[in-house]
Amino acid sequence: MTPDLAPASRLDSYPYRHRLADVMARPPLTTPAETTLARACGLMTETGASSVLVLEEGGALAGIVTDSDVVALIARHGAAALSFPLGEIMETPNSLDSDCFLYMALARMARLGIRHLAVIDAAGAPVGVITPRHLLKMRSQQAVMIGDDVAQARSAADLARARAALPQLAANLRREDVAALTVAGVISGVVRDMTRRGAEIAEEQMAVDGWGPAPARYALLVLGSAGRGESLLAFDQDNALVHDGDQAADPWFAEFGRRLNELLDQAGIHLCKGEVMVRNPLWRRSLEGWRDEVKGWVFQPQMETLLKVDIFFDMVFIHGDRALAARLRLDALEMAARAPFFQQLMEQNIARLGSPLGLFGRLVTKQGRLDAKKFGLLPLVSTARARALGAGVAAVSTKARFAALAAAGKLHEEDLAGLRAAHEAILSIILDQQLRDIAAGHEPSTRIAPAALPRAERNRLRRAFQRIRLLSEAQGTVMRV
């Protein structure tokens, strides 16, 4: 059944343009679990906060107490409630990462009927709070709550409806002149959410079928463009898994991977042709197994496996044990930073991609099209990744990697704007081509038709490819492009 996309036509793009970090209250009011309710009330009065976040000893988020909780507790227990430690009365907090788009917070709060949402950083530490007061900064609350549709999904068919809504959402955002990179971030967020919910459904189904819970702690990772926040409308699966079990745990994780990958395929996130998926034993390992594998990748690199390997460093945690994923990421980054030959090989691979520019800057096509991913996105993304790994930069997105390199003096400031412009130009032309192809009943791809572009867009594309071609020549310590 075709999804009802009428709400999308009334879309206000604000919640799709802005992330939680843009509107949250910061810093949040935090306190240890032993703090009494009386003290918490005093802190909320002093700061004007309507909630207090309760922290574990290590600083991780443990719970939340809101002003409405205070009223309910006093109504139930009288003045005696003021002596209760927060650790005994706190509620389990709902949270989202600070880089999530605002529409995801809207969906979560509406579905759960909550008025406070904690905002956490990549390590799981609280960095802010979202309340209805912050949501009033929006011009409108009419939005397509794809994130909520995903959260309530019970099957591949439910997830597929959210997947099917993405082209119309992207088209509406582009009509409002939302940058292609921002649209890509929205699409990537939905891919991540679908993968997370797919993992939950797989776990639930395995429990029903007698497999029981996971035999060890594990973390599910999304790699590649969805990890970087740069997915467009022609994407497939790139995922991996790390666990802290032994070999005896692998049958459970193998079954989990099989179910997850098949479910996502049925939902419209197709199987990876290169088998970069959890069902492939090469992409599910123990923490020690991953350490050994990454060590081999970076200290004994091989050109033929490089394309599969490098997207591993675009990993983002999706589901399971966040600390396990953080440990793997830190270990991998540390090893890559100590492997100059690995970095050199990555850059040599960029030079092999070639350029679509012919004589006098003419765009060379085959049957009227050229692969803008191969000649445009891959050089940009790969250069940012290789240089970031060499500089010990932990950022994942291409934009953030280039910014961090500039801040570290590895990229001239005057070149930063040019690289960002090239990235946006390639993304926007691919995305708009995909939308035209979908409207014409064709499968979207990364192949674009330059002749169909207005002259200004062709010139923009040509300038982007000219700048990208220079990347392979930037072999010094400071990139000049």
Your description of this structure?
- About 50% of the residues lie in helices and about 10% in strands.
- The chain has about 475 residues and is an alpha/beta fold.
- The chain has three domains: about 5-135, Roll (CBS-domain), CATH 3.10.580; about 150-335, Beta Polymerase, domain 2, CATH 3.30.460.10; about 345-470.
- The strands form four sheets. It has a four-stranded mixed beta sheet with strand order 9-8-7-10, sandwiched between helices.
- A hairpin with a 5-residue loop joins β2 (about 50-55) and β3 (about 60-65).
- The longest helix is centred in the middle third of the chain and has 29 residues, at about 180-210.
- Mean pLDDT is about 85; it is low at about 1-10, about 135-145 and about 475-480.
Oligomer: single chain
| Class based on secondary structure composition and strand pairing | alpha/beta
**Basic shape:** globular
pLDDT averaged over residues: 87
Please indicate the count of domains: 3
* CATH class category of the largest domain: Alpha Beta
Shape-level CATH architecture of the largest domain = 2-Layer Sandwich
| Stretches with pLDDT under 50, minimum 5 residues | 1-11, 137-144, 475-480
- What percent of residues adopt helix (DSSP H or I)? 40-55%
Largest sheet: 4 strands, mixed
Radius of gyration: 24 Å
Entry summary:
The protein is an alpha/beta fold and 481 residues long. The chain contains 21 helices and twelve strands.
Write the layout of secondary structure elements.
Blueprint: H1 6-9, H2 14-17, H3 20-23, E1 30-32, H4 37-47, E2 51-55, E3 61-66, H5 67-77, H6 86-89, E4 95-97, H7 102-112, E5 117-120, E6 126-130, H8 132-135, H9 146-151, H10 156-175, H11 180-208, E7 218-222, H12 224-228, E8 239-243, H13 250-267, E9 284-286, H14 287-299, H15 306-310, E10 316-320, H16 322-337, H17 340-351, E11 370-371, H18 372-391, H19 398-407, H20 413-439, E12 447-448, H21 455-471
Parallel strand pairs: 1-2, 4-5, 8-9
Antiparallel strand pairs: 2-3, 5-6, 7-8, 7-10, 11-12
Helix pairs in contact: 10-11, 10-13, 11-13, 14-16, 17-18, 18-19, 18-20, 18-21, 19-20, 20-21
